[in-house]
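Researcher: Please generate the 3D structure of the following complex. Treat every line as part of one assembly.
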Amino acid sequence: MTSLSRRAFAITATAALLGGCGGGHRTGRSPAGHPGSTTPSARSTGKSARALGRSVPVGLEIPDIGVDTPVIRLGLAPDHTVQVPPVTAHDRAGWYRHSPTPGQTGPSVILGHVTVGAHGDGVFRHLARLGRGDRVVARLENGTAAVFAVYSVRTVAKADFPTDAVYGDVGRPELRLITCGGPRTGDEYRDNVIVFAALTSASP
Amino acid sequence: MRRTVLSATALACTAVLASTVPAFADGPSPVPAATVTPSESPAPADATDPSPVPAESEAQAPGEVTVVPSGAPDTGVASAESGTDGALIGGSAAAVLAAGGAAALLVRRRRATTA
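Model: Done. Output below.
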């Protein structure tokens, strides 16, 4: 019975991945179905990881851009926009607490600053440099880690923020990393840089 | 004879009435039974119907975003220093240009006086 259910799960997961990733060439999924999006790499599609249990993220590592940061919790601002981490010298990333924890089914959303005013670079200063297949590790409160592979990096105007693609249901464990980018107007950035990643494995 | 006919008729009527009384008595008993059965049947139906719905929503609750924020996140505060830096760079470039122009003028004048 358990082997049957495992088989059923494997078939379902494979079908979901095949349907979601378009065979690893061009994505047909609605959340990532946008111009300029790239598909999950072979690493991310090949190792379809099972969804993890709920455990709040406490740290984030992105080796390719030298990020190793604690993760704080963020909620909603009074104007119903998402809160962002405080502007401090020791900038940290923040997890949007109304999104799934990393590894749970759905898009787990983590935000960080690109710059923090007079303090200089933010924790996500070089987020736009990430590319398909790059590794992102979320350290969880229960001592485990959820490992993701980047499948798309988008720079979009804030005026056209893709809410559905970022926060919409995806049916599998995914990660969104968000910061600002593009040209500056005064002390504000025109664009958002959004990294889309899919869970590849979990390490104890 | 008439008496017997009348009494027979009266007996028949009472018998009919007597038979109808239990008929009335029987009538109400199925009615509550009927009301009980529907009341019982919707109750479990109602009890079973809502239970799967929360179960499904609970199953979905561990995943996906529960509250979607509005707008785009403001995840970048450009440094005010960068503006002053730009002004400094522009100012120094202008100073260099002015110094170069002044030097060129001096050289010209010297050449003119020596000639």
